[in-house]
Amino acid sequence: MTIKVIIVDDQAMVRAGFAALLAAQSDIDVVGDAADGRQGVELSRRAHPDVVLMDVRMPEMDGLEAARRLLDPPPGVVHRPKVLMLTTFDVDDYVYEALRAGASGFLLKDAPPADLISAVRVVAAGEALLAPSVTRRLIADFAARPAPRRKGAVRLNGLTPRETEVLELIARGLSNQEIAAELVLAEQTVKTHIGRVLSKLSLRDRAQAVIFAYESGLVTPGE
To answer: Strand pairing partners for 87?
Structure first.
């Protein structure tokens, strides 16, 4: 199945470079590009991409607001693509808010070409993706906050003990395969548990699951 992608970035050279790289892949089809967030939202409404590569800092409308509009569309708009945020900075004020808005992850613009291609495939498959430096920033951000008041405790009570274990391991950065090995389960069983966790907690993907686990106090930095 071909992955349809649009690229939203205010630098023409960046758009052209990413488009050439991705279009060379047999399973990826670049269906358009836009120079700012507003154009990106309009293009996405027309082109119905699977993945939107979204720059963070742009004129007219920044990537955060554009991601919000794509991931929380108005009534009548059914299509909701996966959004992969692109940034030049590994420490960016938008990281946390973009993930809260539903972005599937962050990737640095200077990442190797193979990482960009892999990121598109990972996000299209419904997984979350964070550059290691971005993950460190998120954990540092949570570590600097006051102890959580476990505002998600009520929602956590809706999970089975096994589902709670799975959520904790997701938050610690383990892959499905690693979770399966840790809990001595089949990988397909782990996927089933993850699906139930996301459904019960009304979360879009693993990125939001990680945030929820920290905010609820299930996981604390440094443990």
So the answer is: 108
